[in-house]
Write a structure and sequence with these properties.
By secondary structure, this protein is α/β, with parallel strands linked by helices. The chain folds into two domains: 2-172, Rossmann fold, CATH 3.40.50.1970; 175-358, Dehydroquinate synthase-like, alpha domain. The protein has helices spanning 46-59, 78-90, 105-117, 131-137, 175-191, 194-208, 212-232, 247-257, 264-281, 287-299, 312-319, 349-358; strands at 2-6, 13-18, 36-42, 63-69, 98-103, 124-128, 142-147, 150-157, 163-166, 332-337, 340-344. The longest helix has 21 residues, at 212-232. It is globular, with a radius of gyration of 20 Å.
């Protein structure tokens, strides 16, 4: 087991990465304020792993409740959130009861948001079961639900007390989900860690083949990068915004097509190539840099173009509702160089539109 720390003073918490961690209740017990917890999972993950986690806790004397919600981005919404609240209230859960999110990014986001709101805040633990959630969404305390007009528009910052990433759960992950997770892994190399990007270029096929050592290295390097950024900028007032490379375009794709049509990582991959193309148009990247990024995403089995069905006008409309708009100006994460990102509002809308056009459909 590898252990990393997210350094947030008295709210610091560990990230444990390794095999067989679902049965290691001793890692969770010291963080429970009372011997009671509720595990939130979905209809895909629960049949595979809920009993393994819950039984381990019960053997250690913990009273464990279970809430199973539908699977899919389209269910990261108010009705599903209210289902969680209904169960917590019906079960007379207290503020000191711990919520445990067992699943991918959707489960982690909605469970974290429920924990942030229920009785004005209860502790929660992340047990991510997808590559994307293990390397990104489970770390950093961003919680949210979607709105029909924008992704993750309603949420709160609420840090977990622990992240427990059992790499055994990746063995049942669908190939498409594994590839989608790689989009967030590649992101870290592009924005701040060129040596990691070079390692990924040499190792992407090993990750896709689910070689244990390659998976652990990818997860740990990604979490180390994110933990460092979150510790420096928890509330996204500066450096943390760099983690949104490709996300403003990607969120427009997800919202514009309808939640669940494209996986989050797929939309981020296409969005990252739009951002790279815009960076090239601004003179920051060379054509060979964009081709290098394109090649890595293609080898990862990810889309490198946005959907033809989404018009430039619709992209821009959705992007101007994004959380990163400030004083009415569109702020984008762009690449000054491969391995170095910057937040900029300097790109003219005409250039943004041209980059979308060049990187959408047939281009």
């Amino acid at each position: 087991m590898e252990t990393l720390m997210v350094a947030l003073g008295d709210r610091a918490y560990p990230i444990h990465v390794g095999r067989g961690l679902l049965e290691r209740s001793e890692l969770l017990l010291p963080l429970l304020r009372q011997p009671r917890a509720v595990v939130v999972s979905n209809t895909t993950v629960a049949p595979l792993y809920l009993n393994r986690l819950a039984d381990s806790l019960r053997r250690s004397g913990v009273d464990v409740g279970e809430i199973v919600v539908p699977d899919g981005e389209q269910f990261k919404d108010w009705p599903t959130l209210n289902t969680i609240f209904d169960r917590l209230i019906e079960s007379r859960c207290e503020r000191s009861t711990t919520l445990i999110a067992l699943g991918g990014g959707v489960v982690g986001d909605i469970t974290g948001f429920a924990a942030a709101c229920y009785q004005r805040g209860m502790p929660f633990i992340q047990v991510p079961t997808t590559l994307l959630s293990q390397v990104d969404s489970s770390v950093g305390g961003k919680t949210a639900i979607n709105h029909r007009l924008g992704k993750n528009m309603i949420g709160a910052f609420h840090q977990p007390r622990l992240v427990l990433a059992d790499t055994d759960t990746l063995g049942t992950l669908a190939d498409r989900e594994l590839r989608a997770g790689l989009a967030e892994v590649i992101k870290y190399g592009l924005i701040r860690d060129l040596p990691f990007l070079e390692w990924l270029e040499a190792s992407v096929e090993r990750i896709l083949a689910r070689e244990p050592d390659a998976l652990v290295e990818a997860i740990c390097r990604s979490c180390r990068n994110k933990a460092g950024i979150v510790a420096a900028d928890e509330r996204e007032t500066g450096e943390r915004a760099l983690l949104n490379l490709g996300h403003t375009f990607g969120h427009a794709i997800e919202t514009g097509l309808g939640y669940g049509r494209w996986l989050h990582g797929e939309a981020v991959a296409a969005g990252t190539l739009i951002a790279a193309e815009l960076s090239r148009q601004l003179g920051w990247l060379g054509t060979h840099d964009v081709e290098r990024i394109d090649d890595l995403f293609r080898r990862a089995g990810l889309p490198v173009r946005g959907p033809a069905a989404l018009s430039v006008e619709r992209y821009l409309e959705l992007m101007h509702s994004d959380k990163k708009v400030q004083d009415g100006r569109l702020r984008l994460v762009l690449l000054e160089a491969v391995g170095r990102a910057v937040v900029s509002d300097a790109a003219p809308l005409g250039e943004v539109a041209a980059a979308i056009t060049r990187r959408s459909g047939d281009g």
